[in-house]
Design goal:
Blueprint (H helix, E strand, L loop, with lengths): L4 H16 L6 H11 L3 E6 L8 E7 L2 E7 L12 H4 L1 H5 L9 E2 L8 E2 L2 H19 L1 E11 L5 E20 L5 H14 L1 E6 L4
Parallel strand pairs: 7-8
Antiparallel strand pairs: 1-2, 2-3, 4-5, 6-7
Bound molecules: iron/sulfur cluster.
The site of iron/sulfur cluster has 11 residues, from helix 3.
């Protein structure tokens, strides 16, 4: 049977559309997928990448992730995922995935694995040292002041600021409302003013 170029485009277009809607167009592929998740434990979770918060189903067998896919019952994504969410399976099982904090000492050329407890203690110590050294209670700013004769002149005045300019914080789109609230409380109480978000940079 001959297929014209127009008919071919229509056919392949509908296959892509059905595939992207989660409808399996290839029975062999569907059977292989069914076999892969047979008897697997199903856990529902949220994609860790961005604040859209798409629902994902994770299938595990013997503690290993064997499949991830969009959750069709989730009200936000209804089974669909963007390319990042769709690649989650590859991230989980990637041998290059970082599962420990890395540290490169000043002047060293190599990164080395360190324990979480050590990394967290070190971060806390450095934040405290830096804040102690850089904290300002006041800062000078130029303002205009009216003299008795009605003329204006620029003068330098001290303003209470209670801040440190030496520490910055970058948040991520994976933070939820409660985490953002807690972080803001903590960072503002330290006197940070450079509080940024990775989605805006
Ligand atoms: S990265 Fe993609 S799949 Fe994940 S929550 Fe955001 S839009 Fe959804």
């Amino acid at each position: 049977m001959g297929v014209s170029r127009r008919e071919f485009m229509k056919l392949s277009g509908s296959s892509v559309l059905l595939g992207s809607l989660g409808v399996r167009v290839d029975p062999a592929e569907a059977a292989a997928q069914e076999l892969r998740i047979k008897d697997a434990k199903e856990t529902k979770t949220i994609c860790p990448y961005c604040s859209v918060g798409c629902g994902i189903i994770i299938h595990t067998k013997d503690g290993n992730v064997v499949n991830t896919e969009g959750d069709p019952d989730h009200p936000i994504n209804e089974g669909t995922l963007c390319s990042k969410g769709a690649s989650l399976f590859e991230v989980i099982n990637n041998p290059q995935r970082l599962i420990k904090p890395k540290y490169r000492a000043s002047g060293a050329t190599e990164w080395k694995d360190v324990e979480w407890d050590w990394a967290l203690d070190e971060i806390a110590k450095r934040v405290k040292d830096t804040r102690d050294r850089s904290f300002k209670t006041t800062s000078k700013s130029k303002v205009k002041e009216k003299a008795a004769d009605g003329t204006e002149k620029g003068i330098e005045k001290d303003f209470v600021v209670n801040r440190t300019d030496a520490i910055a914080h970058v948040g991520s789109a994976a933070l939820d409302n409660e985490e953002c609230y807690m972080l803001q409380k903590m960072l503002r109480s330290w006197g940070l003013v450079y509080i940024e978000h990775q989605a805006r940079i």
